[in-house]
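Q: Please design a sequence for this.
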């Protein structure tokens, strides 16, 4: 297992992180992702630890807290062996203060997550989304208090716009508060918008990126191909609900390129898609999900080898899309405004 430094922190994390979004299966959305129980979760964690994956990602809204509870039970007696990241901000109840990044909500949300996880600290605590109604100073002060109390070790943000991140980092610097060390965001071969602004920001500010949905909401599993019926799995069951729409022709062009590279390397389509991400700038860690042990072991096959420069270029070309303004305009000034990747 390869370990990378998470941003400008001193924390080393494995390049793969196991996401527990499939634990529980509570609610309309998460029931389509999976319904892993404690017994199966324990087995999946066993496989992860054997492979060197000691980092696990969850959130307080996953299956209305059931994901945290199941994960907490599955790691009983081995808390010291694992790193845990979880998240807050999104609604956890019907009350006016049961959402957001206010001090009131964050303190309660952190305490509730600690209780469900059965632990005394969270290794990496993410703001799941940006709360424009709460002053950034209030959010970061509350997070800094959690750090000072020992309940949280590091903090990160997820799904923020570039200016949300930069405003937060500037506020931390101005007031000497805890600083976001990681950005968790969507990035895949069919979702490269991250490269336009968030990737240059992460390079400039030293943020370690954790990628979620690296297979494009299940569209890059190899089960979706031109002229073929959708195979059994997450997509067929509606698991892409809530994800971005993707033009069919664009998707099939990318999958065609993945198929060619998979044949050249002797790897599977998902393994190639994951390996491509592991070679991108700023990527510290990829959050993978799996409904069962077979899927998990398949994902582990993305490690221990690298795509060639020519193969990366082939995938880059197939997944290329003209960016929106001002990013397409900035390409004409690359001499002074270089881009970390070719898009």
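A: Design:
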């Amino acid at each position: 297992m390869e370990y990378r430094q998470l941003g400008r922190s001193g924390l080393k994390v494995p390049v793969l992180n196991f996401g527990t979004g499939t634990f529980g299966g509570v609610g309309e959305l998460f029931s389509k992702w999976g319904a892993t129980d404690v017994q199966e979760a324990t087995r999946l964690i066993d496989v992860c630890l054997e492979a060197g994956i000691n980092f696990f990602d969850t959130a307080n809204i996953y299956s209305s807290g059931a994901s945290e509870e199941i994960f907490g039970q599955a790691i009983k007696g081995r808390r010291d062996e694992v790193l845990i990241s979880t998240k807050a901000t999104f609604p956890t109840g019907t009350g006016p203060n049961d959402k957001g990044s206010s001090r009131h909500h964050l303190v309660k949300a952190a305490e509730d997550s600690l209780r469900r996880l059965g632990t005394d600290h969270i290794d990496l605590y993410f703001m799941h989304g940006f709360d424009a109604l709460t002053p950034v100073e209030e959010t970061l002060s509350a997070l800094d208090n959690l750090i000072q109390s020992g309940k949280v070790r590091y903090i990160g943000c997820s799904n923020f716009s570039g200016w949300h991140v930069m405003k937060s980092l500037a506020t931390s610097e101005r007031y000497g508060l805890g600083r976001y060390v990681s950005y968790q965001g969507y990035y895949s071969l069919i979702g490269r918008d991250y490269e336009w602004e968030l990737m240059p920001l992460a390079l400039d500010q030293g943020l370690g990126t954790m990628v979620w949905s690296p297979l494009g909401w299940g569209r890059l599993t190899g089960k979706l191909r031109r002229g073929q019926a959708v195979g059994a799995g997450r997509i067929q069951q509606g698991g892409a609900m809530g994800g971005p729409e993707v033009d069919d022709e664009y998707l099939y062009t990318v999958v065609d390129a993945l198929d060619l590279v998979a044949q050249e390397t002797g790897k599977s389509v998902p393994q190639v898609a994951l390996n491509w991400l592991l070679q991108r700038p700023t990527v510290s860690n990829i959050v993978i999900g799996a409904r069962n042990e077979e899927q998990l072991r398949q994902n582990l096959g993305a490690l221990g080898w690298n795509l060639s420069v020519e193969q990366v270029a082939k995938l880059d070309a197939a997944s290329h899309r003209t960016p929106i303004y001002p990013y397409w305009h900035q390409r004409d000034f690359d001499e002074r405004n270089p881009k970390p990747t070719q898009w």
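Q: Thanks. Anything notable?
A: Strands lie at 3-5, 12-14, 16-19, 55-57, 83-88, 122-127, 152-158, 180-186, 208-212, 283-288. Residues 88 and 127 are 5 Å apart (CA to CA).
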